[in-house]
Amino acid sequence: MIVQFMRFAFREESTEKQKARALELIRRTAKVESVAHSTVGRLLGDPAEGYTHGYSFGLADLDAFERYMYDPVHLAGDTEILPHYAKLHVGVAVTDDPDPDLGAKISAVYEGKLARYPEWERLMTAIPEVRFG
Known about the structure:
- This protein is α+β, with helices and mostly antiparallel strands.
- It has helices at residues 16-29, 62-70, 72-81, 102-116, 118-125; strands at residues 2-10, 35-42, 53-59, 85-90, 94-95, 129-132.
- α1 (16-29) runs antiparallel to α3, α2 packs parallel to α4 (102-116) and α4 packs across α5 (118-125).
């Protein structure tokens, strides 16, 4: 199992309707076939860090992770979600997989998506603050 956690905050100029739509799309993505479990909602963290919401999801293995990253529902949602992020922290993943190279393999999936979808890369780089790990 690979469990990923993301924290994010919306841009000040995003309307409540746009924020609600983004959360709806994240929840839709969280229901794709490759996701074993998920939670999307407000973040119960330190408000001083500036994050307001979180998304946690579990995937059975690396194959499920790759299917998730390239799922048409995920790809379609990102074009509406990412422009509203002011801050995004793609947090540390947790796994019970003993493969010592799993982290590098997950990174390779991200890099492959960036290379294959230049628009996704543009959307990611347009987020004012992005952190991994």
